[in-house]
C-alpha cells in the first residue's frame, strides 16, 4: 500500500505544538500556560514515557528552574535534592591523577550552587507540573513528518504510523499517525533531531555558521558501597585513557540514596577509525581513582547520547516561518561546563514568551524574530560567548595545550570581556575527520573484568532498549555498495566501534566459492544516540524515528 492508498490521518489543532518532552520542550509548554491559561498546547514525545530517552550527566545549574518555578526547592517532591558539596578536577595518567587547584579554574567552572541529579527525573517532575496546567502530553508517539502550508510555513507535525511491517506494508495492527497542527511549532528534539535536521536544510538555517560539532556521552548509574558514598561529590577529569590528539573527558557524580553516575565523553572529531568510545569508557573505569569508588558497588543502568559541542558559532538560525528550534536541537550546550539543561529551559521559556506575544497579537505561522535576537543578547548568548573558543582550541592543539589555552581564553573573556583569539572556527564536520585505516594504529582493548568494566551487549540490556522486531529498520543506508567500498574497505568498518550499542556489524557470508563481508544492522539494539548519523565518513547513514515508544527506557538517568 503506497501513501496515496493509505487512509487520511486524523488531526487536532492547537495554538502551539511542542516536539520533545525534554527540559526545553516542557519548559516551553509550561511557560505558555503560565502566560495564558487559555492557550492550547500539546507535547509529543517519542519515548515510552517522559524521561525514558533523557540521558545527561548531570550537574544541573538551577537558573532555568529558578525562573520557571521560583519556589521549586520548597516542593515536597522537588526533583533535585543533592547540592554540590565538593568539586574536584583531575588530569589523569595511566596509574594516577594530578588534582588541579580549584582556584585555577575560571569562575564559570565552579559548581557551587548547582545540584547533582537525574535530568530524566527533572523532566518527569516538569511533566506533572505541565499536566496540572492542562497541557496534553503524548508519550510513545514519534513526530515523524513535518507539515507545511501552501506558503511553505511549518504548520505542525505528523506522528509516525504504527504497525508497519519490516516489508514496509501495514500489518494487522496498523494505525495511521495523527496530524498535530499548530499556529507555532517548537522543536525540542535534542541533539541531531531528525526533524530539526530537515528544517535546518530546508530553510538554510546554517548558512554562515560553523559546522555543527558533537561528542558522544556514555553513562552508567551505580549503587555504591555505602562506605564510599559521598553525596554531592562532583569529579571531572581528562587525559587517560584518551591520547592527547583525541578530545574528551570524564565525570563521576555522587547522587542521593547511595547512588552515583559515572560517564565518559569522546569528541566525535577523532581521527583513528579503530577507536571505540565504549571501550575507552570501560577502560577509564579501571583507573585507580575510579575503580576504588566503584568496587563493591553494582551497576544499575547504561546509556549513550550525542551531545552538541559546536557552541556559539555553530548555533543555526533558530527561527523559520511557523516555529523555532529550542534546547539541544539548536545546540545550546556549554561544552567546558558539560551543561546544557539550564540553557534548554531558558530557551524554551524565551520561545514560549515570543510565541505567546505573537498569538496575543493575532499572528500565526510567521517568524518569531524576537526569540532569535533574545537568545543571542540574553543569558544563553552570554553563557556560550565566554566559552566559544574552548572547543576549537582543544581540537587544534590537542588536550594539554588546548585545555590550557582554553582556560586562559575563558579567564580573558570573564575578566576583560575580550579574547585574544577572536572567535575561532571549527573547520571540518565530524564525518570528515577519520583517517584511512592504513594510516592509523590499531588499539588493543582489554577484556572486561565483570567488576567495573563490561561488554557492550550486557550494557545495552541495562538500557532496557526495545523495538518491535518486525518494524522497518530505522537506520537508513543510502548506498550499501558505498558502505562496503569506503566504510569497510578504506576505514576498516568504524561503525562497529563508534556505535555504543552493537548495532552495526560486518559479518562474513559465503559468496560462491569464497566469502564476503556484509553490513548487518541490529536495529533493535539502538539506544537513539545518533552517532552513526554524525560520524559515518560518507554521511551514508541516516537515523529516522522508529515506531513510537521504541528505544531505551532509562530509569533515573
Query: What is the CA-CA span between the terminal residues?
Result: 40 Å
% residues in beta strands: 15-25%
> How is the main sheet built?
8 strands, mixed
Shape: globular
- The whole-angstrom Rg is 23 Å
Give me the count of strands: 24
Structural class: alpha+beta
Number of helices: 14
Which runs of at least 5 residues are low in confidence (pLDDT < 50)?
A: none
- What does the average pLDDT come to? 96
- As a percent range, the share of helical residues equals 25-40%
Q: Briefly, what is this?
A:
The protein has helices at 23-35, 63-68, 119-132, 194-202, 277-284, 288-294, 341-360, 369-377, 379-385, 390-415, 456-462, 480-488, 495-498, 531-535, and strands spanning 11-19, 41-45, 59-60, 82-83, 86-92, 97-99, 115-116, 136-139, 143-148, 154-159, 162-164, 170-175, 179-187, 214-223, 233-239, 248-254, 259-267, 298-308, 319-320, 323-325, 475-477, 504-511, 514-521, 541-543.
Describe this structure as you would to a colleague:
It is a single chain. By secondary structure, this protein is α+β, with helices and mostly antiparallel strands. About 25% of the residues lie in helices and about 25% in strands. It is built from 14 helices and 24 strands. Strands 1, 2, 8, 9, 10, 13, 19 and 20 form an eight-stranded mixed sheet that branches. β9 (about 145-150) and β10 form a beta hairpin. α1 (about 25-35) runs parallel beside α7, α7 (about 340-360) runs antiparallel to α8 (about 370-375) and α8 packs across α9 (about 380-385). It is globular, with a radius of gyration of 23 Å.
Amino acid at each position: 500500500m503506497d501513501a496515496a492508498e493509505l487512509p487520511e490521518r486524523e488531526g487536532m489543532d492547537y495554538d502551539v505544538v511542542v516536539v520533545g518532552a525534554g527540559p526545553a520542550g516542557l519548559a516551553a509548554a509550561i511557560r505558555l500556560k503560565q502566560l495564558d491559561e487559555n492557550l492550547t498546547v500539546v507535547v509529543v514525545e517519542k519515548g515510552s514515557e517522559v524521561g525514558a530517552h533523557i540521558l545527561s550527566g548531570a550537574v544541573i545549574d538551577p537558573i532555568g528552574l529558578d525562573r520557571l518555578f521560583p519556589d521549586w526547592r520548597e516542593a515536597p517532591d522537588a526533583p533535585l535534592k543533592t547540592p554540590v558539596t565538593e568539586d574536584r578536577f583531575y588530569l589523569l595518567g595511566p596509574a594516577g591523577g594530578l588534582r588541579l587547584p580549584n582556584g585555577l579554574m575560571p569562575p564559570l567552572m565552579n559548581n557551587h550552587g548547582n545540584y547533582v541529579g537525574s535530568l530524566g527525573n527533572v523532566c518527569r517532575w516538569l511533566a506533572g507540573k505541565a499536566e496540572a496546567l492542562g497541557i496534553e502530553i503524548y508519550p510513545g508517539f514519534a513526530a515523524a513528518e513535518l507539515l507545511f502550508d501552501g506558503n511553505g510555513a511549518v504548520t505542525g507535525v505528523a506522528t509516525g504510523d504504527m504497525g508497519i511491517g519490516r516489508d514496509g506494508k501495514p500489518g494487522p495492527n496498523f494505525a495511521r499517525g495523527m496530524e498535530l497542527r499548530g499556529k507555532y511549532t517548537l522543536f525540542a528534539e535534542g541533539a541531531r533531531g531528525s526533524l530539526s535536521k530537515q528544517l535546518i536544510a530546508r530553510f538554510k538555517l546554517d548558512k554562515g555558521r560553523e559546522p555543527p560539532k558533537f561528542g558522544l556521552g556514555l553513562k552508567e548509574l551505580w549503587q555504591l558501597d555505602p562506605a564510599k558514598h559521598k553525596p554531592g561529590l562532583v569529579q571531572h577529569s581528562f587525559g587517560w585513557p584518551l591520547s592527547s590528539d583525541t578530545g574528551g573527558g570524564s565525570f563521576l557524580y555522587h547522587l542521593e540514596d547511595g547512588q552515583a553516575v559515572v560517564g565518559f565523553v569522546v569528541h566525535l572529531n577523532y581521527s583513528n577509525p579503530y577507536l571505540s568510545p565504549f571501550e575507552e569508557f570501560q577502560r577509564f573505569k579501571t583507573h585507580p581513582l575510579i575503580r576504588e569508588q566503584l568496587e563493591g558497588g553494582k551497576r544499575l543502568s547504561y546509556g549513550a547520547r550525542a551531545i552538541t559541542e559546536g557552541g556559539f558559532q555553530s548555533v543555526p538560525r533558530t527561527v523559520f516561518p511557523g516555529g523555532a528550534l529550542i534546547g539541544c536541537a539548536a545546540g545550546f550546550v556549554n561544552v567546558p561546563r558539560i551543561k546544557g539543561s539550564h540553557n534548554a529551559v531558558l530557551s524554551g521559556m524565551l520561545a514560549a514568551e515570543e510565541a505567546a506575544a505573537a498569538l496575543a497579537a493575532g499572528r500565526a505561522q510567521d517568524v518569531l524574530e524576537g526569540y532569535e535576537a533574545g537568545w543571542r543578547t540574553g543569558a544563553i548568548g552570554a553563557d556560550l560567548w565566554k566559552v566559544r573558543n574552548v572547543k576549537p582550541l582543544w581540537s587544534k592543539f590537542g588536550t594539554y595545550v588546548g585545555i590550557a589555552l582554553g582556560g586562559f581564553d575563558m579567564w580573558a573573556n570573564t575578566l576583560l570581556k575580550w579574547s585574544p583569539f577572536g572567535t575561532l572556527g571549527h573547520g571540518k564536520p565530524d564525518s570528515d575527520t577519520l583517517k584511512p585505516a592504513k594510516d592509523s594504529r590499531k588499539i588493543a582493548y582489554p577484556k572486561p573484568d565483570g567488576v567495573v568494566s563490561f561488554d557492550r551487549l550486557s550494557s545495552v540490556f541495562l538500557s532496557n532498549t526495545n523495538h518491535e522486531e518486525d518494524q522497518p529498520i530505522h537506520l537508513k543506508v543510502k548506498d550499501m555498495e558505498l558502505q562496503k567500498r569506503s566504510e569497510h574497505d578504506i576505514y576498516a568498518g568504524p561503525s562497529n566501534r563508534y556505535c555504543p550499542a552493537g548495532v552495526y556489524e560486518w559479518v562474513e557470508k559465503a559468496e560462491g566459492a569464497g566469502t564476503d563481508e556484509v553490513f548487518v544492522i541490529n536495529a533493535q539494539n539502538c539506544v537513539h544516540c545518533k552517532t552513526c548519523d554524525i560520524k559515518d565518513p560518507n554521511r551514508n547513514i541516516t537515523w529516522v524515528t522508529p515506531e513510537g515508544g521504541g528505544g531505551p527506557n532509562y530509569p533515573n538517568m
